[in-house]
């Protein structure tokens, strides 16, 4: 089992779309800027409220949700291992049998008919006058 990386918690960049910084949400264009201390206070308020809210929700919900998602993915894995994969293998075996049967019928019945029609129509000569 690999060790848990407490620094890089999204090594596969699954949640890149959720990275939200103050600069991504709030921006004051030239000519419409507040006082510097208000801008700093807004930044600190944004960072603090975002961090506190996320931490409180994580404390309350992370463990139960991790349990639910672990259970859900275990059920999906079990379903695929014990139901989907065997059914797919059975289906592929039966399709192979049907493919041989269908191919044999085509070669034995339809093949000679098409060959006969091909020879018949290949002897037609069209002359433009």
From TrEMBL:
Name of this protein: Caveolin
GO terms, molecular function: molecular adaptor activity
Function: May act as a scaffolding protein within caveolar membranes. Interacts directly with G-protein alpha subunits and can functionally regulate their activity.
Membrane topology: Peripheral membrane protein
InterPro entries: Caveolin
Family per similarity comment: Belongs to the caveolin family.
PANTHER family, A to Z: CAVEOLIN, CAVEOLIN-2
UniProt keyword terms in alphabetical order: Cell membrane, Golgi apparatus, Membrane, Transmembrane, Transmembrane helix
Broad class of where this protein is predominantly found: membrane
GO BP, sorted A to Z: caveola assembly
GO cellular component: caveola; Golgi membrane
Subcellular location: Cell membrane; Golgi apparatus membrane; Membrane, Caveola
TM helices/strands, residue ranges: 59-82
Coiled coil: none
A Pfam family per the record: Caveolin
């Amino acid at each position: 089992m690999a060790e848990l990386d407490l620094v890089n918690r999204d090594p596969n960049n699954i949640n890149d779309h959720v990275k939200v910084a103050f600069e991504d949400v709030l921006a004051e264009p030239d000519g419409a800027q507040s006082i510097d201390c208000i801008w700093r206070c807004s930044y600190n308020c944004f960072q603090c409220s975002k961090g506190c809210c996320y931490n409180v929700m994580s404390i309350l919900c992370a463990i139960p949700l991790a349990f639910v998602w672990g259970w859900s993915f275990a059920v999906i894995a079990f379903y695929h291992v014990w139901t989907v994969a065997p059914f797919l293998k059975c289906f592929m075996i039966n399709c192979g049998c049907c493919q041989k049967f269908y191919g044999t019928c085509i070669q034995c019945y339809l093949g000679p008919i098409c060959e006969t029609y091909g020879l018949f129509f290949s002897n037609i000569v069209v002359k433009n006058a």
